[in-house]
User: What shape does this take?
Amino acid sequence: MGRPKGFLEHGREDASRRPVEVRLRDWREVYEPRSDATMRNQAGRCMDCGIPFCHDACPLGNLVPEWSDLVSRDDWSAADERLHATNNFPEFTGRLCPAPCEGACVLGIDDEPVTIERVELEIAERSFAEGWVVPITAARTGRSVAVVGSGPAGLACAQQLSRAGHDVTVFERAEAPGGLLRYGIPAFKLEKSVVDRRLDQLAAEGVTFRCGTSVETSPHTAAPDGVEEVRAAALLDQFDAVVLATGSTVPRDLPIEGRGLRGIAFAMDYLRTSNLVGEGRLEVPPHDAAGKVVVIVGGGDTGADCLGTVHRQGARSVTQLEILESPPSSRGEDNPWPTWPVILRTSSAHEEGGLRRFGLRTVRFVGERDKVVGLEVLPATEGSEAATAPRAIAAELVILAMGFVGPEPAVLDALDVERTGRGTIAVDAAWSTSRPRVFACGDAVRGQSLIVWAIAEGRSCAVAVDRALMGSTELPASVVPYQAALA
Ligand SMILES: Cc1cc2nc3c(=O)[nH]c(=O)nc-3n(C[C@H](O)[C@H](O)[C@H](O)COP(=O)(O)OP(=O)(O)OC[C@H]3O[C@@H](n4cnc5c(N)ncnc54)[C@H](O)[C@@H]3O)c2cc1C
Ligand code: SF4
Assistant: This one.
């Protein structure tokens, strides 16, 4: 243990965000890098307590006390080895994880928790900068696996299976791999070069990517022009196993009066096309917010990502509506440590502007000719005064960010795999679907969730597939028990 009392010497220091007026002029990441000395001090705040609740709270079982100690002692190379031992993509979780580990950090009982997520990111960035992220190859087994979907679950599963020696082909209907990492999450949270450099490692390890290839065709997400269609049954003929990592991409709709008006877009259609513009694959976004009065229906993280995108496109004004009442600013008594703190969070996008309104239910879209000009809202709580008098809010662009209802059915129907009552893919304790040789992981199984869960499930699924193909496995045992994965 390097410095067991570091927390007495140093308070928590969060990474600073670039000034609002500067960052709104570009799409680059909001947070600024930290110096090595700062990170050594921050990592040194870890108390190495007897029972590391942070480790248990992390779905990947990241070895937080171990790599914190190594960073505090300036041994970044060993920290890199311990970090990559449990996490294929710490540069994604280090940027984007809501960090349940920090909510469970023992220091958080009467002080500010360790900046675990940031320490993770700085180790990951150091790994790339030092050239420690190199291809890891294995003797080939002659077995082949098709992974459908290239989000964090599919990528983690593919990388682990390739490292077990199998020939892995990832089928992705989008123009490039990454799933929501590329076409959901905006560049100001995750620059796409960060995704690309990790994909380079997978490709060098022997993973084959077939992008622009849809396994069956779904009406829910418009396939890009020229997309090739592959039958799911053909995959079963050509590969020894198939892993479905297709995500939970069917958006929740708002089927109220006026829904058919022009100027109302699903969040993912808005974000996807904005990201395509950022990548230079599309010239003009079909739902451009420039100069418009924008309303985002949905106060969650997806809504916040739309908010930051709307700001950067130069909207005239933007309002974000949330149906729930505002959460408290600090932990309530019914939300004690080490549970995840349910508090009002101010993302970087909220800091950049816009109006947040809580406790409002949208009841009607108002249009002129065929175009939206506003919407009407009621207080969401029953019995509120004025419950019968809708209030009008002007809107020239409405973005629906109300979550997702489950995976798209086309490929599931084609393979005739059983669903859960929630419409997600039903799997057994070995990530096996009801169809022999077909496995599933990620949001397609859990419903819309988090990157850290997707990576954890992808790793866990790879263990199960390897065992099914070879009779045993030497892949590192996953820390995700099946029951926890579905909790
Ligand atoms: C806007 C947005 C922002 C988010 N921000 C965060 C965040 O900051 N932090 C966090 O932890 N989580 C975040 N999430 C959630 C996180 O992105 C997901 O939980 C995670 O990406 C799920 O990974 P996945 O691999 O299961 O699926 P996905 O990332 O959804 O990938 C599924 C892939 O499968 C492909 N696919 C689907 N069907 C087919 C088919 N038939 N043929 C070929 N390809 C197919 C899709 O095109 C897609 O690329 C966010 C989600 C959204 C929508
Ligand atoms: S992946 Fe998330 S929960 Fe796990 S250590 Fe990193 S920030 Fe914490």
Observations:
- The chain has a mean pLDDT of 93.
- The CA atoms of residues 178 and 196 lie 8 Å apart.
- Residues 58, 60, 62, 64, 93, 97, 99-101, 116-117, 120, 452 surround iron/sulfur cluster (ligand 2) (CB under 6 Å).
